[in-house]
Structure formats: C-alpha cells, structure tokens
Amino acid sequence: MMFNQTDKPTADGSNQSPATLFVTDARGNILISNEFTALTIGIPLEELLRYNVQDLVKGGYYSESITMKAIQSKQKVTQYVNTIQGFKVKSTAVPILDNTGEVQLVVTSSSGYRGGSSIITNSTLPPAHENSKRSATTGSVFKNNGVVAESLAMKQIIQVCDQIASYDSKVLILGESGTGKSVIAKYIHRQSTKWNGPFIPVNSAAIPASLFEYELFGYVKGAMPGLLNEKQGLFEVANGGVLFFDEVAELPLDIQAKLLDVLERNEFRRVGSTELIPIQCRMIFATNRDLWSMVKKDLFREDLYYRINVIPIHIPPLRSRKLDLVGLISSFIAHFNKIYDKKYVLPAEEFQKMLAKPWHGNARELRNYIERLIVIDQTGLCQQQQVEQVTDWFTLDHFIQANRSRLNGLKEYTALTEGRYIQQMLQVCGGNSAETARQLGIDRSVVYRKLKRMEDILTKLKA
Question: Per-residue pLDDT tens for 249-297?
C-alpha cells in the first residue's frame, strides 16, 4: 500500500506543498512517514520510523497524538497539533477499518501548518521498541543512490533514468547551475551495467583549447617535442564506464568538430598515431546553457547538437520543487551534523524562510547555506554552554574570576570578546559573512579566523 502527500500534484509538481504524514498500525507503530514530518520534530527519518506515536508524545515532540485518538474512537479526527520545533500543524487522522470494524491502519496527514518560534527543551525520545524491524525504506521520501526525489518531477526523472540506464544511448542533461546534473549523471552510471567501471568527469570549460585534444584522445611518444612518454586520453581512461562532459556548451567550435567526428565513427586516434581505437564507454553530456539558441547563433554545431541530444533530461530549478527542497534540507542537515559532530535542528521560522527563498543557485546554494547555519550554530552553542551572556559588569567579573587560571592572559580574553561580537554581527547580517566583514571593516577571512580562535579557547575551557 502506497501513500503520498495529501496535496494533489500539478503536472510538474511545482505547486506541491510540504505536508506531514504518518501511517501507523492499530497500536500506533509508525510504518510510513516522510522527510517533512521528521523535519517538524527534529528527528532523522530513519530514526523516526522505529518509533510509536505515543513515544513522540512522551518525549515532548508532540503536544498530543490525534493518531491515538482516531484509534480509540475509530473515527476521523482533525485538529491543530504543536510540535517541539514550533510548528503548529493542522492534521487529520483517518482510521482504516477491517471487515470486523477493527482499526487496521491510521493515515494521519496535514493540510497546512503555521510556523512558530523554536522551542528549546530537554526532552528526549524513549528507546525504540526492540521488536521493531521497520526501516527507512518504507518512508515516502524517494532516495536512490544519493538522489533525493520527493517531487513528482524528480520521481519522473528517476524513472526515466532507470529505463535508459541499461542502454548506451547518449544523454543530454539540461538545467540551471546547481540543480544536480552531475548527480543525475552519476545515478545513471550506478544503475547501468557499467556500474563497476569508472565515472570520468570532464569540465569542458576548464581545459584550454590547445590541450583539449591531448587530454581527450591522449598522445604517443614524440607526438610533440618534449613528449617523451605516451599518455592515455580520457576516452581510454573511461573504458567500461562513463565519460561525463560537463558544461559541453563551452567547447570551442574546432573541438566540437573533432568530437563530432569521433561520435560518428565511434573510434579515435591518439595524437601522433595512425592506430584507430574503438570507444568503449558511455557518454553523458550536461549544460546550463540553451544549446538550441547557441545553435541558431552559430555558437554550437547543429550536427553535434543532434548527435548528443538523443535522450534529453531537463532538471527543473529547485524553486519549483518545494518537496525536494524539504528532502534536501533534511539530507544536508544530517550530512553536516555528522561532519561537525553536531545535533542541529531546524527552527520553524528558519524553515519558513528557506521555503520562501528563490534559491537561484539551487541545491549548491542550499548546501552552502545550511553548512553556514550549522557552523554558526556550532560556535554559538559552544558560547552558550561555556560563557554566560554578558549583560552587566557582575556577569563579566564572574567569568573573569572563574577562568583566570585557565585563560592565557589578555589575548585570550580579547579573543573571546571579539569572537562574541562577530557572532552577534553575523546574526544581525543574517549569517552573511561578507556583509559582516564590511560592517566591521575587516576581511572576511578575519571573521572566520577570529571565530575559530574563540572556538579553540572555549574547547580548552571545556576540557
């Protein structure tokens, strides 16, 4: 049985709104959920799927459980429920009864939410039931080999990739910068029969035109003065795998002509050699440019365009895929929490802010934004744990007296003060380090260096 979000999707999924979802059995054990639900209470989806809804109430993650109300009354229940992260969610729990009138399943979903302020609490979730064997694979979030696909548009792209993965047809991936073109290319590689072969990316814009032929086709000894050894080209290195041409629109026209010749004959020669070498790799191309407009302006060869555009895949911008935005937020938070050994959870007001942003840099911009959030929270949390907020001289004097023997003179006191002031300015500037540096009259590298210095001192105090 498969359950999706309660909102009816549009053709491209662009109007889908994030909605919470629980599917439980008759005892309240969670069978299915999604990333947005996990986000609203600050628990990873993989962990959430191991619990009973009553555990969430006991742990303070929900004010009450309408799922249990529906189980007890055997009737639909609708009301607002407050979450630990400050979300006020209008939820409806619908019991599904069997032939004897007993509850078999309960589907609890939201039709809207109201963000509030983050709630800080010391509550902890009780241990999961030992006999629970549910796993995150039953969640509604669609994750395959590193691809987050919650929206209808991305699920359709994944389905297309699964269908074409076993063929060597050329693929052209289109989309704005940061939408995940290389992620999709790697997904196709992993799903294909060439999964155990190499995945070789080629940044078409980064290789000088004069060297492109040598990099792509390789060369034999003595092909040019000073070339004392032979070298394999990228076509040979990618044998049995995938050669991924990123930013293919940036190829110079003369290189385009040589690439077209290779694609038509499916073989090539090393520079300085007469021996033909067959191509034994799949080729995937990607660009953030409008190739057809470039063709009409004679900036890209029309014959090459048709040659590489066998299977086009267009990735919509992140601003039109709100459900994917939720999944990526959850994924990036988990990633950076692991890297920085943190337990950062997203407040409701911050989530609303992120949901409203246009994200012109797409997933790449989102990733950097979340990393910045967690890094800033990391320094702020250390400061809150180790140093009382300086609101008057008494507090400052108390801190100095308590740490006089552990701080190494005036420099360390000054470093703490500077770090705290920079931290406050970062909050005023919305986490924008460049603007903070401008207002403080220092270089942006100084901002990071002084924050790091403060963190090092606080770590020493904690030891």
Answer: 999 898 899 999 999 999 998 888 888 999 999 999 999 999 999 999 9
Q: Which domain holds residue 342?
A: 319-462
Query: Same structural domain for residues 410 and 457?
Result: yes
Query: Among 101-105, 226-230, 240-244, 436-440, which stretch is predicted with the lowest mean pLDDT?
Result: 226-230
Contacts of 185 (CB under 8 A, 6+ apart): 171, 173, 199, 242, 244, 284, 286
Domain total for the chain?
3
Q: State the Cα–Cα distance between residues 96 and 428, nearest whole angstrom.
A: 50
Tell which residue, 198, 177, 209, 221, has the closest CA to residue 318: 177
- CA nearest 371: which of 414, 342, 401? 342
pLDDT tens across 292-346, in order?
999 999 999 999 999 998 888 999 999 888 888 888 888 898 889 889 888 887 7
Instruction: Indicate if 443 and 392 belong to the same structural domain.
Output: yes
Same domain, 297 and 325: no
Same domain flag for 448 and 344:
yes
Q: Are residues 453 and 428 in the same domain?
A: yes
- Whether residue 55 sits in one domain with residue 158: no
CB-based contacts of 37: which residues, under 8 Å, 6+ apart? 20, 21, 22, 45, 48
- If you write DSSP's letter for every residue of 397-437 in order, what string do you get? HHHHHHHTTTS-HHHHHHHHHHHHHHHHHHHHTTT-HHHHH
Residues 79, 308: Cα–Cα separation, whole Å: 54
Q: Are residues 358 and 374 in the same domain?
A: yes
Q: Where on the phi/psi map is residue 262: left (φ > 0), alpha (ψ -120 to 50), or beta?
A: alpha
Residue at 310: amino acid letter: V
pLDDT of residue 19: 66
- Cα(374)–Cα(463) distance, integer angstroms: 22
Six token digits for residue 349: 């007001």
What pLDDT was estimated at residue 410?
82
Question: Is 4 a member of any domain?
Answer: no
In angstroms, the CA 20 to CA 87 distance is 11
- CA 120 from chain centre, in angstroms, equals 26
Cα separation, 252 vs 254, whole angstroms: 6
Helices H, strands E: what count in the chain?
A: 18, 16
Domain for residue 224, yes or no?
A: yes
Residue 334 inside a domain? The answer is yes
Q: Are residues 205 and 86 in the same domain?
A: no
Residue 12 lies in a domain: no
